[in-house]
Design goal:
Elements lengths: L1 H24 L7 H7 L4 H12 L3 H19 L4 H7 L5 H12 L6 H4 L23 E6 L3 E10 L6 H12 L2 H6 L9 E8 L2 E9 L7 E4 L3 E9 L2 H14 L13 E6 L11 E8 L3
Antiparallel strand pairs: 1-6, 2-4, 2-5, 3-4, 3-7, 6-8, 7-8
Keywords: DNA-binding, Transcription, Transcription regulation
Protein name: HTH araC/xylS-type domain-containing protein
Organism: Salinicoccus sediminis
Length: about 290
């Protein structure tokens, strides 16, 4: 059985590698990720979760960073005029190109040669997958019946989705006192603030809230019933969650038997709700398909 699950996991990694090749072949164009994944018969939320966990960013973010890196190399070598480079990469003129370049690197294209060595360039991604030898995070397993989550939701087109969006939303809710109000309704089976993501209506939905059976003025959604593996750590939420998912997809899944259900993702903050606090206790609830 272990060999069977290991083979499935390797097929997933190989597919991500092939998708990276697809992105590299289309850096200059606008990729309709929703359409491409539909044509491939791939469930969008599952793929986005796996891709982001393995690569460290969404497909759209990867494309944009790689595109700007290639632009920087073009400017550094100086073989073509800036206007020709801008048009080649799909910009309508120099000004839109300069604005995009400044947003990415904080300098004008004309300053590239001077600052090239300090630019945050992104080379083509390759990654190593290593089976786990010992647990990196404490983990436990729990069966969870479909559970109601109430809170505040935001929805994004696939191309605009970023893992950072949920932390911006969480920070806004915390500063505006909404988190404190949500906690008052937290009488459900999961204690803490839940960050729930799923694919809906050709986009990504992020809902931040609490499990509750009480009537509330907030939006609601329901988790899927199933078995969960719960990983726990402490640290700033964005970095800690990313590191746990990296561990799950690069190491843990190659050791354990069972197929990961990535149709949705769910993280829980158990203590402070300041996303940057090193004292935040973070849980990742990774769903498993039931045999």
């Amino acid at each position: 059985m272990y060999d069977e699950w290991n083979e499935i996991a390797m097929e997933t990694v190989n597919f991500v590698e092939k998708f990276i090749v697809y992105i590299e072949d289309h850096l200059r164009g606008r990729i309709d990720y929703d359409q491409v994944l539909n044509a491939m018969g791939v469930e969008q939320k599952s793929f986005m979760t796996i891709f982001t966990s393995l690569v460290g960013m969404t497909p759209y973010e990867y494309q944009q960073k790689r595109k700007m890196t290639e632009l920087a190399y073009e400017l550094y070598t100086g073989h073509r005029r800036i206007i020709d480079i801008a048009k080649y990469y799909g910009y309508s003129g120099i000004e839109p190109f300069k604005e995009a370049y400044f947003r990415t690197f904080g300098i004008s294209p004309y300053e590239t040669e001077k600052h090239f060595r300090s630019l945050p360039l992104l080379e083509r991604i390759s990654f190593e997958v290593v089976p786990v030898d010992k647990p990196r995070y404490p983990e436990k397993r729990q069966y969870l019946e479909s559970t109601r989550i109430v809170g505040v939701a935001e929805r994004f087109p696939i191309a605009e989705y970023s893992a950072e969006a949920k932390y911006h939303l969480l920070d806004d809710l915390n500063r505006n006192g909404i988190i404190d109000e949500l906690i008052r309704y937290n009488n459900g089976s999961i204690k803490g603030i839940v960050m729930h993501e799923r694919y809906v209506s050709q986009g990504m939905e992020i809902l931040i809230g609490v499990t509750s059976t009480l009537p509330t003025p907030f939006e609601e959604t329901y988790t899927e019933s199933g078995d969960f593996v719960i990983f726990e750590s402490t640290g700033p939420a964005p970095e800690t969650v990313e590191d746990i998912y990296s561990y799950i997809f690069r190491r843990w899944r190659f050791k354990e038997e069972g197929e990961l259900n990535c149709n949705f993702s769910m993280e829980v903050l158990k203590s402070t709700f300041d996303v940057a606090s090193p004292g935040t206790k973070v849980q990742v609830w990774q769903s498993l398909y039931i045999d």
